[in-house]
Amino acid sequence: MQERFRTLRLVLTLLLLTLIFSSCTDEDVTKAGSRFPNAYSADDTWLISWYVCGSDLESEYGAASADIEELLETELPSNVRVLILAGGTREWHNDLFRSDRLNLYLYDSGGLHPVDAMKNADMGDTRTLENFLRYGAENFPADHNVFVFWDHGGGSAAGVCADERTENMLRLNDIKAAFSAVYGETPAEPPFEVVGFDACLMASYETAAALEGYARYMVASEEMEPGNGWNYDAWVGALGANPSMGGAALGEVICDTYLAGCAEEDTEDEATLSMIDLARLPGLRSAYETYSREALASAGSLSPSFFAALDRAAQRAENYGGNTREMGYANMVDLAGLARETTRELPSGTALAQAVDDACIYKVHGDYRRRGGGISSYYSYDGDEEGFSVYAEQDAALLSQKCLLYCMIYGEMPEEAADILAASPDTGRIGVLPTERRNIFGVEALEDRAVDVDRNGNAFVRLTAAEMDILSSVHCNLLYIGAEEDIILYLGSDVNIDADWDKGVFKDNFDGTWPMLDGHPVYIEIVEEGDDYNLYSIPIKLNGMECNLQVIYNYDEGAYHILGARRGLEKNGMSDRNLIRLKPGDRVTTIHYAMSISGDDEDFTPVEVDTFRIGNHPTVADEEVGDGTYGYLFEFLAPTGESALSNIVTFEIQNGEIMTSVE
Fold first, then answer.
1. What is the dihedral of CA 69, 572, 218, 213, to 10 degrees?
2. What is the pTM of this model?
């Protein structure tokens, strides 16, 4: 009976994959029809080493236990085994593992067995990873090896596997150090067929560079992963059914079954998973070095206009992890997208985009992450010095790229830049970072910029070419001004303005409507502006938990789509991979920002406004805000996150009629 259900599940999975790929164009799923040939003998042995850092994903949701239970549904042949090291959480949701020790188990054709009693250790410590790598190599040698990191991920700066008990995590330097300690600095052959990250935001150039020489292929996600994660029953089962497959074929199966599992859980809209051929990394590194050196040379004069153009390109490219004031900043950008968007300023971007396409040999994605090239890289969207300093310490990151971002953030050239521009090797770290930063943008000069009203009643501002040269974007901000309630309520920011960057004229598009969730006004922030959709974030409390509702506005449909809710980034930079779908009856509290009119408030503070139950078909839609007084301001943003606000525009709405006035 169990075999019958197993066969049925496999048939349904294959059917689902067929439906997904048959309904997508070549643009929707890159190389979806390709198949990699078998590379080995069916008798070859395989060891999958699974580094499971349970963290709060396990203690709060039981996510690690669910994936382990999923693995145990797979029947394995004698030549495929899984070695599991599990720890890093305050509580396990199964009867086998304990939180006061490391749990070392082997899963093979005979089932799940405890292997060795191991003392408690920090899953975010290099030595724990090193010991696990060495234990597997010495005690379970195999013809082919796979290594999988399981937990939160935070991208090139934050790293992966944050131990909930110690709050330590594995940075890229830590991962590199552990692998090199066991296998040497430059192993003759990669010891692993695949190294994968069942974690958010790890499909970056920097991650791949840290693993170069240690694996043939890397599989990871550019974007945050949903809670369902990888489909272990499917991909481990596929390897068990065909041990002759090579690493590329296995990577393809991991990607395909992951997207199928996301579709099954209705979490595929923003899903991404990439397979990178690490043998092609030298070509990608060469193209990225050329691009970064060219950018650094252009930045040498510290011209704000170059950085503004670079930042506008980064804003147009796909970015991952949220990157808003509410969500926090993961600071990860799609590398191919950034390269393509900067070809006018940096001609070498064309070659870089092609190198990304060559290195990423397979990828899958949902409808709202179809523009990415499969490989991301660090980019400072917020100009945060602390986050940059951690990135700058990572040896896998290009020194030229570190110098470029240093220039933008600190307003000066680091000493190392001269050597890089003189064609010195593109490796190493920047020395001591400045204690103070020099602001080269001067966006504060636009504070209280005068606003006019044209003959059609549209408020507008004029900017000179020099003023636009310091800006990465212009947003609009909307406020509700309630004199009787003695409150100013901040409703959020958007890019819904008529922006003419050629003439320097920026007009309002306010029509008396604003996004509402089931008829309730919300605070909303723009995350990403695409060609055919925008991505927004809405802070709410969902059943008492603070999180951010992720919402897409589809231009073609003229409608919003709710993707789900996530908590913001942790202080350590780790993202939340638990995408929560709204259900009928969920209790939602909208969160706005407010200050009193009569008081001496110096800034807006968060306030809870409406609490209500979600209906059967929750929707976000632009609806009339109603009669009252509303304030509207143009916001001018610099590449390093600083901004300035124009003078206020007042909209008086009575019976649907809008009267516009300015100071």
1. -130
2. 0.92
